[in-house]
């Protein structure tokens, strides 16, 4: 049976998470996971490592949930956690020869910047997602038999 959320706004979801509601936490993960993965991947250009960093940041969000009562605070927490982990990854990879422009970019801290980056990550995610490519083979064949026969996607 599907549980109804009982949450009408993101602010309510954040408060539910703060109060330890696992369903509210799951809603936050679904809201931000892909955006945060795209953000992390832009910083370190390693998809699996970016996913791991985001997963660790989300686990830390759950651990520190009682300290975070506002959407802004949650966004900052996640962005800073991911940024710091990405910086550490870059330091390990590049050592003393770190790209200065990348470091300046990663060090940017304003909430407006965070919002812009999350919005950009969502746009990029949507641009890269092609629902046709994710259709099961029979569905693809149903809408375009000639392409399915040669193994091409629309």
UniProtKB/TrEMBL annotation:
Molecular functions (GO terms): DNA-binding transcription factor activity
GO biological process: one example: DNA-templated transcription initiation
Source domain of life: Bacteria
Protein name: Sigma factor
């Amino acid at each position: 049976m599907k549980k109804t959320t009982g949450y009408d706004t993101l602010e309510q979801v954040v408060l539910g998470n703060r109060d330890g509601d696992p369903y509210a936490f799951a809603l936050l993960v679904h809201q931000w996971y892909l955006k945060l993965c795209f953000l992390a991947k832009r910083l370190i250009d390693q998809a699996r490592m970016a996913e791991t960093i985001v997963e660790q940041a989300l686990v830390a969000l759950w651990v520190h949930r009682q300290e975070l009562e506002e959407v802004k605070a949650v966004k900052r927490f996640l962005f800073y956690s991911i940024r710091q982990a990405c910086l550490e990854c870059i330091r390990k990879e590049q050592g003393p020869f770190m790209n200065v422009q990348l470091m300046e970019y990663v060090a940017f801290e304003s909430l407006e910047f965070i919002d812009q980056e999350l919005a950009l990550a969502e746009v990029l995610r949507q641009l890269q997602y092609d629902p046709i490519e994710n259709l099961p083979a029979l569905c693809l064949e149903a809408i375009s038999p000639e392409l399915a026969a040669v193994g091409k996607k629309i």
